[in-house]
Every structure is written in C-alpha cells, then in structure tokens.
Fold:
Amino acid sequence: VVVSAWRWIRFAEEVEPRGSLVWAQAGEALPFTPQRFFLIHGVPDGVVRGAHAHRELHEVLVAVAGEVTLELDDGCEQATVVLDDPALGLYLPPPVWRTQRRYMPGSMLLALASHHYDPDDYVRDHDEFRRLVGP
Ligand code: TYD
Structure:
C-alpha cells in the first residue's frame, strides 16, 4: 500500500444559524506552527500557478472561497485533487510537486506556511525534483 505524503485535515467547524466558524490550532489539527500566510485570488481562468516543490517548507492549503484544482506528485503518488471546502485543509509536507491547475472565478486559496519566505527553498526544476525524491 502506497500512502501519499500529503493528507487532508478536517478542521473544527461550528455551523449555526448565525453562520459558520472554522478553526484549527497549531499542535492540534495544524501539524506545524505557521510563520506566514499568503492568499492567492483573482486568478484568471486558464492561468496555471505553482509548478514547484519545497525543500523544507510545510504548507496547509485551504480554498476559503470557490474551487481550486491541484495536481500533486510526491515522487510515488500522483493525484488531481479539488479544494472546495473552507473546513478542509490539504497538508503538503516537503517535497511535493504541486501545480494549481484551475481556479474557478471568485476562488481564494489560503496557504499557511511553516517558515518565512525563502526563494532558495523552492525547487522549480522538475528534473531536480525527480532527483530529490529518488528513483
Ligand atoms: P510564487 O511562489 O512564485 O507564486 P506561484 O508559484 O503561485 O506562481 O510567488 C510569486 C511572487 O510573490 C514571487 O515574486 C515571490 C513573492 N512572494 C513573497 O514575496 N512572499 C511570499 O510569501 C510568497 C508566497 C511569494
């Protein structure tokens, strides 16, 4: 049985007539203490983003609005996944090659990151990623 490096995280959620509230705490549902967040939104239809892996960075991705389609590859498993639920996070430990294939109009992707921004942590060359994950 091959288990993918990534996994889904179901956040705590309180749904009530006043509206819904979703949360997660470091050391509980969140597997790391976030040092940074970034948001990607306003992505025009047909634009592909991402297409990289990280050396050390752990991330949790959440489609806080809309629907984002991602392609994932951890070197063993490949999958296309859809993020469309603000109470569902996708945990990506390093190194997972990820491509944001499609943003539905109005979508907003939240990324929680384990470290500050570091361009040297990016693996943007797919051949280098293949060497990193081994045969
Ligand atoms: P990038 O990671 O290249 O986006 P994508 O892989 O989705 O195309 O980031 C785009 C730009 O934003 C790049 O110039 C670096 C900058 N950036 C920061 O300064 N801080 C950050 O935390 C992130 C994620 C990006």
Observations:
- DSSP finds one helix and twelve strands in the chain.
- The chain has a mean pLDDT of 97.
- The helical segments are 126-133.
